[in-house]
Design a protein that fits this description.
The protein has helices at residues 9-22, 24-60, 79-83, 85-88, 105-110, 146-167, 172-179, 196-232, 235-243, 246-286, 293-304, 311-337, 345-369, 374-379, 386-396, 401-430, and strands spanning 68-73, 96-100, 116-126, 132-140. It has 16 helices and 4 strands. Helix content is 68%, strand content 7%. A 4-stranded mixed sheet has the order 2-1-3-4.
Length: 431
């Protein structure tokens, strides 16, 4: 590396950064997209609150327990025994039990009231053993939940079985034990399972970071290449190259556009968070029953993962994300440095996009398919894939702190080498 190679890069950075932020396109996209993101996240909470409230109103019309239980007795069992069903189960103790032995199901259903369950008890056909099977048909009004109806039906079925056992002089407890299936489960008390919050975090953290980095690279990589190509063919660039080294120009411009991108993305993320928080509060004020499921998951992760994810790992992970993004920005500039005309940009950027997609798929898909493969461990140190992997891997513990630092150092070294190569190509293509 020659002395004075990067002299003046700060001046280029300041000039380019200010020029980019002054443009109408930058301001419009920054404010417009930020407002749109805020509205989307705000509206999503309000819509979820409305849907939740609508669902709760429907649930409000559903009675938890039946006020009336009508039993149609078409068997030889005494009505009084069936009426005692009320004392047999606490779940129906507050219900009015009425037993009919002189009415058909069609007659009873015609006179049915709200919050009523009708149980029709009758004899079925003989089975293979010449024994008559007792049948139960259960009817219920629409204001009762299916869960409630099934619970009453199950309770009555058990009670009815007890009556039959008593009538045949058999001990119902003995019969229950003999005829019931059971399963044995063994639990290792020394085995510590991961909490649900940690499991959720390990699923979503890689997804969020990988998609975020991928989006940033695709969004800003092409803009960096395009800006460098346009300026390369201007006379201003020829004048600059007489006083400032090409490496300094390249470094300053890349860092300026990189900081522009970080600023834009930061404001958009803040807009998303603000829209989400404001929308959540508005939804809670508008709809009393609204309970944000996303916040519940975040709180769960925060509570369960407080000791699972170290501060040092988070710091290194975030640093890796920014360095990885810078690496791809420099790579975009390197591609642009080999292009002389704007018309050739599409062909040149296809290479950039192919490498980006390959890095994304390799970093995201392969660990899902072969998590324990040695290839996955190697990819964590390859500059093409490591920007997508290290941030999430170090945070969730798939790679140690030392390994993550080594990967970051490799990314930094690769970035420096590509900046030097870009500067050399840039001067050649201008003159």
């Amino acid at each position: 590396m020659k002395k004075g190679m990067f002299t003046g890069w700060k001046d280029v950075l300041n000039f380019t950064f200010i020029q980019n932020t002054k443009t109408k396109t930058f301001k419009t996209s920054l404010i417009g997209i930020a407002a749109l993101i805020f509205i989307i996240f705000f509206g999503a909470n309000v819509i979820m609150g409305y849907m939740s409230d609508k669902g709760d109103k429907k649930k409000a019309n559903v009675v938890n327990k039946a006020d009336n239980i009508w039993i149609i007795n078409e068997v030889e069992i005494n009505n009084e025994l069936l009426e005692e069903f009320k004392e047999a189960d606490d779940y129906v103790k507050d219900s009015d039990i009425v037993v009919y032995s002189d009415k058909k199901i069609s007659e009873v259903v015609e006179d049915i009231e709200d919050s009523t369950i009708v149980i029709n008890v009758y004899k079925g056909e003989e089975n293979e053993d010449k024994n008559v099977e007792y049948m139960l048909d259960v009817y219920a009004t629409k204001d009762l939940s299916k869960k409630n109806v099934k619970k009453v039906a199950k309770a009555f079925s058990k009670y009815f079985d007890d009556i039959k056992y008593n009538l045949t002089s058999l001990n119902p407890d003995v019969m229950h034990i003999v005829t019931s299936d059971y399963a044995v489960y063994s639990v290792d008390v020394n085995e510590k399972e991961e909490s649900f919050g940690v499991i959720i975090a390990k699923i979503f953290v890689p997804m969020i970071f990988v998609l975020l980095i991928y989006f940033m690279i695709l969004m800003y990589g092409q803009s960096i290449s395009k800006a460098l190509i346009i300026e390369k063919n201007s006379k201003l660039m020829e004048m600059l190259l007489t006083s400032i080294k090409p490496h300094a120009i390249v470094l300053g411009k890349i860092l300026a556009m990189y900081l522009n991108a970080i600023m834009q993305m930061g404001i958009w993320i803040i807009s998303a968070v603000a829209g989400f928080i404001v929308g959540d509060r508005v939804a809670k004020n508008m709809f009393n029953s609204y309970d944000n499921s996303i916040i519940k998951v975040i709180n769960l992760i925060r509570a369960d993962s407080s000791s699972a994810f170290s501060v040092s790992a988070i710091i290194i992970g975030i640093a890796a994300m920014f360095i990885g993004f810078l690496l791809y920005c420099v790579f975009a500039a390197l591609v642009a440095s080999n292009i002389t005309k704007a018309e050739e940009l599409a062909n040149g950027m296809s290479v950039f996009q192919m490498v980006t997609i390959a890095g994304f798929l390799g970093a995201y898909m392969l660990p899902l398919l072969q998590a324990d493969s040695p290839i996955v461990d190697i990819l964590r140190y390859v500059p093409v894939t490591s920007p997508f992997m290290i941030t999430s891997d170090v945070i969730i513990g798939n790679i140690g702190i030392i390994g993550a630092i080594v990967s970051v150092l490799i990314m930094i070294a690769t970035t420096v080498v590509m900046i030097i190569m870009t500067g050399k190509n840039y001067k050649k293509k201008v003159f």
